[in-house]
Inverse folding.
């Protein structure tokens, strides 16, 4: 029925082992080396990205600190500018009030002089008014 040929079986076994050896040398070892290299490369990239993310967190913290310092400085500068402008406005208000007081005093003095002038003028014209009133009453 079934004939077993020992030399043929040994030849097939030898061919199988040679083929296995050649495939191991040409295909499996380079493929395994490539996969190991790829795993190592991925591990290095992950480690580098972790160190970079840690570095970026530090840089973000520094940037936030610089921004908060800049905001504080801006607030101080803004408040100083507001205070300076308030001081300038206050001095202008005081100067304007003094000028208005001087003008008020000058106006009061001028009105007093005009009043005095009108009084003296009316008093000097009093005899004429009396004469004209007498003339009008006499015609009635």
């Amino acid at each position: 029925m079934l004939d077993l040929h020992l030399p043929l079986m040994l030849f097939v076994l030898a061919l199988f082992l040679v083929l296995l050896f050649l495939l191991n040398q040409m295909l499996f070892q380079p493929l395994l080396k490539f996969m190991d290299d790829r795993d190592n490369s991925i591990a290095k990239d992950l480690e580098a990205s972790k160190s970079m993310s840690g570095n970026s967190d530090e840089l973000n913290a520094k940037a936030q600190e610089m921004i908060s310092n800049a905001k504080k400085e801006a607030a101080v500068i803004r408040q100083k500018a507001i205070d300076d402008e308030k001081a300038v406005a206050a001095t202008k208000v005081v100067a304007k009030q003094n000028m208005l007081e001087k003008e008020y005093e000058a106006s009061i003095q001028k009105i007093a002089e005009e009043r005095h002038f009108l009084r003296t003028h009316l008093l000097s014209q009093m005899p004429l008014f009396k004469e004209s009133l007498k003339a009008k009453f006499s015609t009635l």
Q: What stands out?
A: The mean pLDDT is 91.
